[in-house]
Amino acid sequence: MLINIAQTRAMTTPLIAPAGLKNVIVTDTELGDVRGEEGYFHYRGHDATALARDVDFEDAWHLVLFGALPRPDEAAAFRRRVGALRELDGRTVDLLRATVRPGTEPMHALRVALAALGLGERPLMDLPEDERTAAALRYAALTPTILAAAHRLARGEAPVDADPAAGHAADYLRMATGNVAPDDAAALQTYLVATIDHGFNASTFAGRVIASTGSDMASCLLGALGAFLGPLHGGAPSRALAALDEIGDPSNTRDWVRDKIARDERIMGFGHAVYRTHDPRSELLKGVARRYDSVLVRQALQVESEIETAINELKPGRRLYANVEYYAGVVMSEVGLPPSMFTPTFGTARVVGWTANVLEQVAQGKIIRPSARYTGRILQ
Q1: Type and span of the H or E element at 345
Q2: Residue 286, domain extent
Q3: What's 58's DSSP letter?
Q4: 151/109 Cα distance (integer angstroms)
Q5: The model's pTM
Q6: Where is the active site (predicted)?
């Protein structure tokens, strides 16, 4: 038998991936897809921005986790199930009271709470499917309650108990701020539905890597959370709003952009790793923001236009559009959430996507184990 050396080398030589794994497909998924050239993304074949306009958060959650939008009877049962799971036990509340100090970041408190809740948890690969699903629902339901409680404790306020009968978005806003108006709850729900999942972003991929080892749900979520805390990922909404504060009057925008470009600094809230046209989530939230017609909203609209024009003039051929973080900060500000709660609010939605991805990855039963290219010295 003849051996083709060239073919053998082709089979055994590692592929060299681009920086950041850009455009590298690492697995198959049925959860959703992001089409950057089209400016479109979906959850299990359903246009995600259409879902954000038309369905409740719980219905989108059911779709992502179970593969289909619920029938009316299923929807009611699912709301009851996750509503009951949203209630926080006394031990976790005591833990938060003992660890949260003035100024504590709610996401850091979530990290502590998730670690405690995961004590003694069995690996997902050792659990039957129904117990894996139960773990996914438990953590996703508890996350907004933990974040709202941590936020209030950091401000010297008492936590507000969950209301199992309330809608997920409305109850989160009530627990965080102490009150909720129907229009604000609807605006926040639109944002939450639109940010449940978004392809293999850094936090989702981090969670799936850990899930591929068969680990427990808490560990998977802690890994995803660690990636999410980075300012280039989940930490971006507050920085985008801070840019509006820096600019002030929209007439200052072009000078501000010139200075950023001269310093080779990132313009937070603009550009995206995947989209090469308008971010559909940004366009959706721009419409939500316009309902408020406030000074902040009018400023954001003017500044967005000025930034796009300035970038086009200063860097011809390089189109940067507002991404989801730009209008996310505006909408969250309008519904009464402070900047310290922008990333946590993003997290209350994304945890649903993380848990769905974790379940899908564990079911595949294959550990993720890529290679690295060594570029250091070779010692003789």
Answers
A1: helix 342-364
A2: 236-334
A3: H
A4: 9
A5: 0.90
A6: 272, 325
